[in-house]
Predict the 3D structure of the following.
Amino acid sequence: SQQGEEDPQALSIQEGENATMNCSYKTSINNLQWYRQNSGRGLVHLILIRSNEREKHSGRLRVTLDTSKKSSSLLITASRAADTASYFCATEGDDKIIFGKGTRLHILP
Amino acid sequence: EAQVTQNPRYLITVTGKKLTVTCSQNMNHEYMSWYRQDPGLGLRQIYYSMNVEVTDKGDVPEGYKVSRKEKRNFPLILESPSPNQTSLYFCASSPFRWGTDTQYFGPGTRLTVL
């Protein structure tokens, strides 16, 4: 059963703009993580937010979590060409870690 | 260097020919996991292991086997591969399962079954 669902599926923005992508999930979670994947490569962990946290920052990344709406958002500020990648949310419940299908982000020069 | 390694990175095989994809981590992590990634489906967990000799099924375990005889190694075994197992496979590890830690991913193994 699919837990995390990212939105949008694909996003193209100009370099320097902010990128926002969302993740919705269905059941209660212990934490939610965001990962980045460059084409065909392994996933790289970006940020983890626990279920009792509402917002977290890491460099140009800001993650929010709304457990009442069962949703999270990832904001990348001042985007760069190197941010072009796919971004996945992963939710960890009591028995499983489930990844969403990802958002493909393309930064235009 | 702390890392998760997988071998082989690329493999083309034929239906029914048993194969093993190895996974090794040098971080003394307890939790290890295998995922497959298919277009439009994202990553799906195949099997995971909470510790040595402890393995559990993920979302798509059919057609796969795993073993965890040592903490550092978690091989994925396809006893009789079929074309629908053509996919990109990732191994991952993390210090603990609960409460949670980030997962460290290997570089991936691209498998083609003819």
About this structure: Chain A is about 0% helix and 55% strand. Residues 8 and 104 of chain A are 8 Å apart (CA to CA).
